[in-house]
């Protein structure tokens, strides 16, 4: 099985290649450099690059940079970096803006053939007439007048938005997209890639098919919102093939698939911008965001994102995918590569009344179901930290952790029993306890057996850590529930705790992912963590319903 799971698109590709329709498969990933990539883009990335890998073809990274007012070099470079991080290597890195001269010449061809005209209508009036299926009063301008006006548009003689070039198709066409769509508009703004050379810019519906045709793309794969645009795509190609340097055949064809939609988050660029610019998150790489930069900083591996796309498949059916599935795929990816270590997020100190000195225990990194070897020395001393939630003065029924009269085993160490509780202002400040002799790796010979196992760290050796516990960004499955998505933000999407880790972590590479036993998967924040001032991001919690 290839990188792309079997689906209707693989069937089309295999048929076309078998019938010799194309000598070689060519796809493209065509982001607009006006923002950062997010998890929703991953499906298109895996599909386009995966098909090229599976069928021995090519896949280009192409920047659809036809809007100078919103696009930036910063975004283009970030996109290129994110594509590489996911493990994909484009055959070529291309820019739509490099084809502006060819596109302009193609527009001239359409004008000369009477298939395009310059329209002076304000945008509101044009939209109203299109909605009514009525023609523009400028639709019957002569070829000569249209050529003159379009060339003057290029020279910058008219202000931004004052004129457009429209295709002359059918003002009352049943497909609204074919009601004389706009092909070019005037924008007096510098372009990040080509500078001040142009003041007329092609619209997406005109640029997209020409880019594909110029690059020899065979299968142009778009999400379903572009399904109606396919009619314009085909019209442009059919009316320009064999002209202005374009071949007659083979021509590209557009196919649509359902976009990737995920619960408990937003993938709309407009909403992501509101989150960032409104200060609801710290930036585009905030680990609460679904951006690839955010997921990367959180600690999610690219392998998990690719597998998530493969697991959810490619289809034409729109469906929201549960965040549970994404988290499960991330856990499955981390489980065999994340060594197990001990850490305490909400520390409660325990003083041992019958233990002196210290000893170093040998603790395995891996559980029995993972076929790996390796261990580390784990210090044990008279003062420990345990998790505050692992102790209860008045335990509920079925409690399996530390409580008065109830023993518990310390992971990799001894059985512990409580002797005294030190309270201050109604809060438990300190526990006094004893280890049951002879219980290192063995059950007590007398008295009750421990009901559960808890994690701990030696207070004398522990590394202080800032734990950043990331949770879902929104409280509701659909952030739009109730109308204003900002009202559904989860106030505990980030919870910061001060705790401790076992000392072995200090010797490991910074990018090591860990499973903190009973707590979840963590790694060092690549931006803020420093030796001596560790910051650990929770990548994903353990499976919901995990019981200690």
TrEMBL record:
GO MF annotation terms: ATP binding; glutamine-tRNA ligase activity
Residue ranges constituting the Glutamyl/glutaminyl-tRNA synthetase class Ib anti-codon binding domain according to the UniProt record: 338-434
Enzyme Commission code(s) on record: 6.1.1.18
UniProt keyword annotations, A-Z: Aminoacyl-tRNA synthetase, ATP-binding, Cytoplasm, Ligase, Nucleotide-binding, Protein biosynthesis
Record domain tRNA synthetases class I (E and Q) anti-codon binding: where: 453-525
Highest taxon above the source species: Bacteria
Protein name per the record: Glutamine--tRNA ligase
Organism of origin: Thermus arciformis
